[in-house]
Every structure is written in structure tokens, then in C-alpha cells.
Please model this.
Amino acid sequence: MKALWISVRTVALVVMTTLFGIFLSNVAMGIGPVSTPWPRFGIVLVFFWMLHRPGIMTILMIFALGLAQDLVLRDVPGPGVLALMIAALLLDRMVPPLRTLPLVWRWLGFGVFVALVCALEWVLTSAAYLSMQPVDLVLVQGGMTFLVYPVISIALRQVLRIGRAPRRAF
Model:
């Protein structure tokens, strides 16, 4: 019975942190004359949990979180979900070896993931509107999302004690 509560607690942690990141992405920075969008924390957390809890971050979970991200960020529902799911499927084989590699390699793997998600989302959004969408916002938001990954990854790995050797009792 204890294992069931631990797994329920883990699923709740994954869902709650990702939803919190999605809601945080909706807040504008308010720097300068134009309100600059925040990085897409939902993408960061989906990749982080794909890396460290792959049994929980399934395609169905990615679909639900991607749909929530599209709805919260008031995007066209669909392109963001499809982009996230396609990127997750394409990079599925790349993720397991990244678990044991240093942060720099995980960060580069995340760079590939975020570039793929942003490019697919831009193409699918342009197709949905039947016109070419401006690419500058996608590049800025993708770059900001890429830059914020190490901070979130290090913080979550420290708090959750991921990748550390268990303490020995003397």
C-alpha cells in the first residue's frame, strides 16, 4: 500500500510542477515598452520529467499537458500539442542515454528538443492560419527557454535528490 501512495505522490508532483510551469509561462515580464513573454516552462518540465520519470511522462500525459499549455497560453489548440508529441516521439531514443551524462550534454539534448518543438509549432501554426507567422517571437522564446533549462534542472535535481548517491548509515 505504501508503494501505491509513493507512485500517486510522484504522479501528482509531475503534473503539479508542469502545470505550475505552464501557468508561470502565461505571465508577461513587463520589461521595456513591449511586454516580453517568459520562456515556455512547460516544455522545460516535460523534457525534465521525460528524462527522469519516463514511466510517468507518457505520450498521453504529454498530450494532456500540451493541450493545457495551448489553452492557458491562448494559442491555437493543436499545433503546440502536436509539436510536443512529435518531438517527444522523435527524441525518445535520445533521452535514456542523457540521464547519466553531465549537465552540458543534457542541456544540448534539450536544445535539440526545444528547437524541434519550436520549429514544428511555428510550421503547424502557420498552416493553421494559412499564412506565414512571424518567426522572431519563436526564436526569442525558444532561446529564452533554452537558457533557463540549467537553472530549473539543477534546482529540481537538488530538491528531489535525483542523481545523488543515497546516504549511508554508519
Remarks:
- The chain has a mean pLDDT of 84.
